[in-house]
Amino acid sequence: MSLLTSSVGRKVLMAVSGFFLLMFIVAHLAGNSTIFIGSDWLNAYAEHLHELGPFVWVFRAFMLAMLLIHILFGVILTLENWGANPGKYAVTKRLKVTFSSRTMIWTGLLLLSFIVYHLLQFTFRVTPEIVLAADEVGRFDVFTMVVSSLRIVAIAAIYIFAMVVLFLHTRHGIQSFLQTLGLSNDNLQPKYALAGKLISAVFLVGFGAIPVLIFTGILVK
Amino acid sequence: MSANSEHGTMTLKLIVWRQKGPNEPGRFETYLAKGITEHHSFLEMLDVVNQDLIKEGKEPIVFDHDCREGICGTCSQVINGLPHGGQVRTTVCQLHMRKFKDGDTIYIEPWKAKAFPVLKDLMVDRGALDKVIQAGGYTSARTGAAPDGNSILISKESADYAMDAAECIGCGACVAACPNGAAMLFTGAKVSQLAALPQGKVEAAERVNSMLNAMKECGFGNCTNHFECQAACPKGIDVKFIARLNREYLKALVF
Ligand code: HEM
Ligand code: SF4
Ligand code: FES
Fold first, then answer.
1. What is the pLDDT of residue B6?
2. Residues of chain A with pLDDT under 70
3. pLDDT tens track for A159-209
4. What top-level class would CATH report for the domain A2-85+98-215?
5. Which residue of A72, B36, B239, B242 is most buried, as measured by CB atoms within 10 A?
6. What pTM value is reported for the model?
């Protein structure tokens, strides 16, 4: 199967898995945004998600598969690329390479560690500070759990840092997957690059606002 | 103002990579390029330095060159960190010393990529690019009488597109500039040029797969869409040809 072995085939797998990860992020941001409306909305949203039962698990299995494919080929491609380049020039000058494009493997691995932490915290709920309670109408109180964790300075800082890392990864990743899937040309490419920056900025501001507003005590109910 | 520049000549400090052979360790050596005028091309400047070295009984600096008019793709040097010196759409042989000032320090290094072993000093073996072309950068045609003119119609658009891709001179600057040592711009240009023309469409699917295999076997890296290659290319080959290569790959996979 040339998808698994050829250079472009592997890149296509990275691009497709990266695309689904992006779609997940868009959906996750939309879901999380209920927190800005109020605790009631967030708890109701979480309750509805859990009512989906087995579908939740099918969906989680799919996302996990995408993540594993993305990581596996991300690591393989990066190692091959390091091997193909015998070293730096005495004078290094870059015309197009960006900080974000140069650090994809590192921002990727940081995202992976954040994903593990984030799941342990709010999905498996096993981190030490976690507050588990029910709200007035007897639903699991997601809002209180999130707020009580993100009031802690170290945790708020981790979340904000992780969103900066996500910004860097998708800033290059969005234009990159469009090029990899052959959907680009000389006219579209600069537009994709701009769209990548804007969408990444929306992720940064949208997700980043949650820990910032909670930590500063602006988001209380 | 130094005495030199009054006479219209420059003295430059060159820091040049010297390496005796493929498996020898290399190192930088410093030389003075004296009596250089703004009309010297970069290679002529090196000729002057080599004359001086020969007179001193030292080994001249080995570098690749042929046409010296920007069309053969043989000249290949990384100058101050940029392949071909970084002047837009200019090969080393077409780079002129008026771009430099008296007293400048210039670093000169060979192309660096795993697929391009150094043969000597600034000369590398770019045979890997030939292997990629041999794998599929051709069309198979029966020989015989010349075909009738206009028997195969090609639109102006396709002809222009193919010509833009065909501008690649195979210099390898794209590989030298790529942080991943990838040859996707070079390969993409050839795949696109041929896929755009009716004569090349026949073998398009086999071509993209065998050229990709050859790329891998030669030790080129994988594209991560930095687009550093396009910035370094002396012929302005666009990364849209890499997108086309990716498209041709997907087409070959699906159909
Ligand atoms: C939230 C999770 C993530 C998202 C949304 C995401 C998104 C993307 C996208 C869209 C691309 C461009 C794909 C292409 O052009 O082929 C990409 C590339 C990449 N990702 Fe991720 N990724 C995520 C997590 C990770 C993780 C955990 C790793 C760890 C290994 C990683 C490593 C890489 C690498 C090495 C590249 C290749 C750089 C390139 O080709 O541009 N990513 N990612
Ligand atoms: S694509 Fe440009 S840089 Fe690469 S080999 Fe062809 S002419 Fe040289
Ligand atoms: S020597 Fe032919 S292109 Fe420079």
1. 53
2. 1
3. 999 999 999 999 999 999 999 999 999 999 999 999 999 999 999 999 999
4. mainly alpha
5. B242
6. 0.95
Does B136 lie at the interface with A, CB-CB under 8 angstroms? no
Q: Which chain A residues have any C-beta within 8 angstroms of a chain B C-beta?
A: 2-3, 6-12, 77, 80-81, 83-98, 101-102, 104, 172, 175-176, 179-186, 189
Predicted-assembly ipTM surpassing the 0.85 threshold: yes
pLDDT of residue B138: 96
Look at residue B82 and give its three-state secondary structure. strand
Six token digits for residue B95: 């780079």
Inform me whether the C-beta atom of residue B164 falls under 8 Å from chain A C-beta atoms: no
Give the pairing type, strands B10-19 and B105-109: parallel
- B3-120 and B126-254, same CATH topology: no
Contact B223 A3 (CB under 8 A): no
Return the minimum-mean-pLDDT range out of B99-103, B145-149, B198-202, B207-211. B145-149
CA atoms within 13 A on the CB side of B115: 29
| Residues B135 and B213: beta-carbon distance below 8 Å | yes
Q: Model confidence at B145, in pLDDT bands (50, 70, 90)?
A: confident
The domain spans of chain A are: 2-85+98-215
CATH topology of domain B3-120: Ubiquitin-like (UB roll) (3.10.20)
Give me the pLDDT at residue B3, please. Answer: 46
Instruction: Kindly report the CATH number that applies to the domain delimited by B126-254.
Output: 1.10.1060.10
Domain spans of chain B, in order of start: 3-120, 126-254
Smallest CA–CA distance, residue B54 to chain A, in Å, is 26
- The DSSP result for B124-193, as a single string, is E--HHHHHHHHHHSS-----SSPPPTTSS---HHHHHHHHHHHT-----HHHHH-TT---HHHHHHHHHH
**Closest Cβ–Cβ partner in B82, B115, B250 for A84:** B115
User: Taking a C-beta distance cutoff of 8 angstroms, is the pair B111, B175 a contact?
Assistant: yes
